[in-house]
Amino acid sequence: MYYYLSHWITAMFLVWNGARILAYLPTIRKVMAQDADVRSYSLVSWGIWFLSNLTFALMLLEVSGGQPNEMFWVNVGNTIMCMAVFALVLLKKYRSRSMRTMKCDGHPPLKVECEHLREQGNTLMQLCQYEGAVRAYDAFLTHVEDDATAFNEAICLEKLGRRAEALPLYQQLAQSNVLCGLINGSNCLRSLGAAAEALEYASRATRLAPGDPAAWIALGSAHLSSGAWREAVDSFSHARRLDPIDSTPTYNLALAALRMNDSDLGREELQAFLSLAALDDSCRRLLDSPSNAGSRLVH
Fold this sequence. Notes:
The protein has about 300 residues and is an all-alpha fold. The protein has two domains: about 1-105; about 160-295, Tetratricopeptide repeat domain (Serine Threonine Protein Phosphatase 5, Tetratricopeptide repeat), CATH 1.25.40.10. Helices cover about 80% and strands about 0% of the residues. α9 (about 180-190) packs antiparallel against α10, α11 (about 215-225) runs parallel beside α13 (about 245-260) and α12 (about 230-240) runs antiparallel to α13. InterPro entries: TPR-like_helical_dom_sf, TPR_rpt, Ycf3. Pfam families: TPR_16 (PF13432). Keywords: Membrane, Repeat, TPR repeat, Transmembrane, Transmembrane helix.
């Protein structure tokens, strides 16, 4: 009878331990998950289970005279599972700490540290103090890559007449297909006499943003500089259709028309320009003298 009773006790103990294992399965799944929150795990309960199983296994081994039985191996298995869970939790903590360290060592904090340089540059640019703005922007860009800041520095350099220094900044933006870099880069290249490169930049801008009037104005200006009057008229006409209330494509369209000796179209567009923008005295004299109109470009 004692033999059967011991088997019943063993079976009940196995069922009880199996139920405990099933109860902890959700915790094990959380530990295995990549997005698990380590702080949500009850490490205290796991520690108590680990110590109780280890102690009970040693007691069973001592009582059986050093001969392990079924109950001993059950407790050993539970102890090993607790150790595995602890290892997974520690691994998760290590990964979480490593990710936080990488974030602290990354670019965002450095960008925040240097943010005052960009703000200083923006303020100086608004005050038309372009030399100081260039120095502030250059110091910022030494630590952080930022397209908007590079573009602002290029604008300031152009304001200072240093187009050759502004061009590499535009070229860097153009390599990343930044629209403002292509448009302003085209105008800068045109000012430096590089008509072919200016036309290429403007063409890329129109392909990148076919609905942006500024891209078509840049393309028309590039055609105008290279003597392609008809292409210039087409580009400025397209820009005007995209933005009928902008006076720039209207005026440039008039210039292109006058360059190809279409005085009727030129005068019509200049009259339209008058209705869109208030002209100073020099522009009014230009309207009365079409032969001098081709000497000016607006971009």
